[in-house]
Design a protein that fits this description.
By secondary structure, the protein is mainly α. Helix content is 81%, strand content 0%.
């Protein structure tokens, strides 16, 4: 047994022990760098959104430029044609729809008292909604009118900002397309040549993901607007164009888009009686189901290749972190992350090496060997073009193999 004296000595030694935490200058520098980078990214978030929008425009329009190149048209002329057509479509859309939309919105505001009275009478016919009818009849606009001036000013300022950022994205995309070879060569110059083939595959896949997503959004939104316009016009509902344009734009939004498209259409049909209400509701619901189950998989094709669970999680996470912008960017970002995991051959926990992975690795090594042989001693800009050519040919071979592969 230890003596009391030894216990006392041991206790003193513990009390005298001093714990020191030393922070090296490198740790301080890294912490400052991380905090500074995060602060800079937050401050430059509008610029990053402009860059992302420009890259999305590039990914959407570049396949059309390349298609023209395969038809013998020079790249500069192809870029001019594609961007001119794109700008012309935007101008025609605004010119043809905006005046009519404003006229219908003005007409809708003028008809608001009559529409409100009809809606109140409709609600008063049912015991459960009778209190809502009284609230609707006695609703006062005084507070709303007082705050409308500031709201209109804030909305106008925001609208000008969106227009300015959209114009910047358009011209930035144009410059990126014009300087494609130089910019691509700069990226390849800072990456070791042993990784150029993989980098070119990543860039091609990014173009497929972004282009497929944007084209899919445009097609589905246009079809939604056309369907709503035809349906509301056939049902004799006034201001059909205004509701159709609003529904087509709202169709972009995940989750809440279905309510923003169906809700105004159903409310606009209340004055036409229960038969028209039922027709609009049922047909809108059927189209929403058709769009989600049939149209979206066909339009998007294999561009995103996301499981349903990943889609749901990505939309929730994107909307929680960055609101509407995050929800809109969630799907292409999730598809990009999964693509990077696949292309970089990241071994996930619990995943076993498959024979197919070994064959892909051998194919990668053969492609890299061919690339190094063909690009020995040439500048990075020309080497980048060779890498993209090799990766593009391999992508076509893989696509043909997947199409001719028998279904087991």
């Amino acid at each position: 047994m230890p003596s009391d004296k030894s216990k006392e000595t041991f206790s003193r030694n513990i009390q005298k022990r001093i714990w020191r935490v030393e922070i090296t200058p490198l740790t301080v520098a890294l912490a400052v760098l991380v905090v500074g980078s995060a602060w800079l990214l937050i401050q430059l978030s509008p610029v990053l959104l402009v860059l992302i929008a420009a890259l999305m425009i590039v990914g959407t329009l570049n396949p059309a430029v390349e298609w023209l190149e395969t038809r013998g048209i020079r790249r500069g002329a192809g870029i001019a044609i594609v961007f001119s057509v794109f700008l012309l479509i935007v101008i025609l859309f605004v010119t043809l729809t905006f005046p009519a939309l404003m006229a219908q919105v003005k007409n809708l505001i003028e008809q608001e008292p009559d529409l409100r009275a009809r809606l109140a009478n409709f609600l008063a016919g049912y015991q459960l909604t009778e209190s809502l009818a009284d609230t609707l009849r006695n609703f006062q606009y005084d507070a709303l009118i007082k705050s409308s001036g500031a709201a209109v000013l804030a909305f106008s300022t925001r609208l000008l900002e969106i227009f300015a950022y959209s114009a910047c994205s358009f011209f930035l995309a144009l410059y990126i397309m014009i300087d494609r070879d130089r910019l691509r060569g700069a990226v390849f110059a800072v990456v070791p040549r042993s990784h150029h083939i993989r980098l070119s595959r990543i860039l091609l896949n990014l173009e497929t993901i972004v282009g497929g997503y944007i084209r899919g959004q445009v097609i589905t939104c246009v079809l939604m607007g056309v369907f709503m316009f035809i349906l509301l016009t056939a049902c004799g509902i006034p201001n059909a164009l205004a509701f159709a344009v609003f529904g087509g734009i709202a169709d972009v939004l995940p989750f809440i888009g279905v309510f923003l498209t169906m809700g105004p259409a159903v409310l606009a049909s209340l004055a036409k009686g229960p038969v028209i209400i039922a027709i609009v509701f049922i047909l809108m619901l059927c189209y929403e189901e058709f769009e989600s189950r049939v149209l979206i998989p066909i339009v998007y094709g294999r561009a995103l290749r996301l499981p349903s669970s990943v889609v749901l999680f990505a939309l929730i996470a994107g909307g929680t972190l960055a609101g509407i912008t995050g929800a809109l960017l969630a799907l292409p970002l999730a598809a990009t992350i999964l693509m990077l995991i696949d292309e970089l051959r990241v071994e996930l926990p619990g995943e076993q090496i498959q024979l197919e992975s070994v064959e892909i690795k051998k194919t990668d090594e053969r492609g890299e060997a061919e690339y190094e042989r063909r690009t020995k001693g040439i500048p990075a800009e020309q080497a980048a073009a060779v890498a993209v050519e090799i990766s593009g040919n391999r992508q076509k071979e893989e696509k043909n193999e997947s199409q001719t592969k028998p279904i087991e």
